[in-house]
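Lesson 9: reading folded outputs for more than one chain in a single document. The general rule is that every protein is listed as its sequence immediately followed by its structure tokens, and records are never interleaved. Here is the first one.
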Amino acid sequence: MEFCSYSFYFIAVSSIIIIFVTTFYSKDFTNIFEKSKLQLEQQKQVENEVLLPFAMEEEKECNVFEGSWVYDETSRPMYQEHECPLVEEKITCQAHGRPDKDYQHWRWQPHSCSLPSFNATLMLEKLRGKTMIFVGDSLNRGQFSSMICLLQRSIPKHAKSFEIHEPRFIFKAKEYNATIEFYWAPFLLESNCDDFYYHRRRTDRTVREGSIDVHAQHWKEADILVFNTYIWWMTGFKLKIIRERGKGGMEEMIEMEAEDAYRMGLKELVGWVEKNMDPTKTRIFFVTMSASHSMSWEWGGEKDGNCYNETRLIEDQNYWGSYSRRNIMEVIKEELSASKVPISVLNITQLSEYRKDAHVSIYQKHDHPLKPEELAHPQSYADCFHWCVPGVPDVWNELLYTKLFFP
């Protein structure tokens, strides 16, 4: 009887304690439960995003190409120039005496969202067993060099290789069985500028119509293709086009305006993509024109100046240099949007327009000894087309990374 009384007393007290704790701490328990639930949902969302293969983005809620540059000394640059021995000497500005580093610290911030942080390990994992090829001119090679620099720090020295078999530059991450290449084809079509080492000697440029397969046979097995072409078409003169006449193999030489010739090249690219690429397995990108800053009067600078000694950004959000031709942008839009196989456009033009501070300028390896008159006037030989690395091409690759893996 006494035992039962104690049991009843114990149960009653326990019940009172439980009611007390539940009453006063129910909100905390609810918060803990809701927090755990939220964490699980967030983790699931992240896992779903990470597991996306080559995400085809169709949402237009955020245009990542519209934004502004933000100075960031914390997360920029994403690597140091000396940490990337594989980058081409032409764009290693610090090694060639550039005294300032502010150009390395700018981050691109879209107006209505943020870019995902570049994760080299994630990208390498997604590239496992795959091949990515950058095809185009030296600006595309700069983006290729940037991509290697972004990835190679996550790969042990013994597990990576770099080889040159002109016109191919091949980087391999052996443990991932992943390959990243650059293929020199400045017109995408066959031309008299296809020799990588001697193309600069060609002042009279000639392109063969209907010849994309000459180069494209080397791209067929790619899982990701990143194309660019622009600067070589813009000679200021008509381009010479070799065209077959009739069925007898006879050829004729005609001249085309730059816009018409460029449209011809893009039509051939689209035709080849539609015929050879499987959109369920391959992603195709086209990078728009890179900005040049060769005439400083366009942004209110000196009459005879250019990008030489420029260390500040252009702040006018509507600035558009004359080198970037709007009619060519229309051609890109018209021709690529007509493709039956999706071609994602990386519109780098406007965001690059603001960066007059980030070009190679005079800080590069030169192909020949500079003349006294050149040394006396540095702006006369400043390169205002190509970009220092680290720098602007890293942002192009952040945008590529975003479009690849995050809708």
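And here is the second record, again sequence then tokens.
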Amino acid sequence: MIRAMDQIQIAPFSDLLSHSRFFLTLRSQEGTYHSLILFRLTPTSSPISGEEDDEVATGTNPMYKQLYVMESSCPHLGADLSHSEIEECETSVIAVCPWHRYDFDLRTGKSETGLRACTYAVEIKTDSTDGIDKVWVETPTGGTNWRLVELRPVSEEFADPPPPSTASAAAHLPLPPISAPFVDEPVVPETNPPTTLIQWAVLILNTPNPTLKVQRTRHAIDLFRNAKLTSIGHKSPNAPCPPDVPPREESFSRNTVDPGKVRNRKNRAVMLHALANIEQWAIDLAWNIIARFGPKHPELPPAFFSDFTKMALDESKHFTLLTSRLAELSPSTPYGTMPVHASLWESASVTSDSLRARLAIIHLVHEARGLDVNPATIEKFRKAGDLDSVKVMEVIHADEVTHVTSGHRWFTWICEREGNVDPVGAFREEVRKGWRGDVKGPFNAEDREKAGLTREFYEDLKGEMGITKGPTLEPNTNGFDMKPLKDAIAAVPVEYEPTK
């Protein structure tokens, strides 16, 4: 008996007109993840032979025949297919992997090399409730109750085009130019430039200037995605080591204070500055997990590095959006002029010896907590009439759902490799050892569940890491004294009380 094709609704077709490619992340009820790429060919693309007459006869919009969905990783060595070249033939449309030029038919997934990528049927249906044409995609086999975790446009040049005039405009917020601080160092070092992803990660971690850090992040990821690096570099015996603490410029070091001194400030400029500071550390965290744990786990697949380079790029985008908005709102207080804290890095230090612990504490506690507090922050900006900041925060929140998703995906991957360890039990044990005090609500249960964190992960959760037992972080060679963090509570202070 042939199984009827199960489908999942993706979006109104009109929402897909802003970009030519979209990331899709699906998660099943069983916790299985599938990452897909949706390709939308341009209206000038020629229809595949035999389809043109059908379109005329049925009155179908020709653009509806130009949607294709394929798995996001090349079945050869796991390269990201989002930046594939598209070649049109008389009878097919081909995606060419940027790493080794493997070709895959977007309809069948077949390759002349003998490999085959998974493809998924796409259908456009008119919704009877609102009359809007919506896109449905075939779901993967081997799972039930699939849900859409992420629908994200692929930006070819890191800066999205102007937003469409639809309700989803905030999801396509254009990225502003990178602004101050001034950079007097080239993006690519003139001597001994990095040739592997791990080398770029360590260079970026050792880059004090936040503007240059963002520029190097964009450049390194472009090289990685387009096969312009010699390798990932995590299997090399000579892989460089990341710094214990990423350096900061002198002005930032002078303004680093105890976390308690920057909590609960309600001024919008202060909030934007505090959030930008967190995003700068988040850029480093994304590169640190690559540089620190890649060489320790040579069995990690390319998809791991694709996920976390994507995360680094997201955090760079967030930092740029926040600092640009800060410059617009308060030109006299650019980024770096207000007090900042570094408590987020304490958790990085506590989890520096365990990838499982790092994923649990940083991505399934810290970032999940961001999902809880972001809506209140967004509402505060909204009540202040600051709709530009609202749009920025909506972009950040949508991205952070996918970051928690990636954390959950790789946490469960590790648990499976360790002998099908129960992920819930393993997570709660990691929090017990690596967190201080209660993991408090209220919780954004809907977005947490979307990312894979069901209630049994976090309800009644408490860490038992002793206040006096945390690591003492001595000053590093760049003069940035991290020692005060030894008594800092491991929590991200971004919870702002609503205005009364």
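What the second record shows: Residues 45-59, 156-173, 467-500 have pLDDT under 50 and may be disordered.
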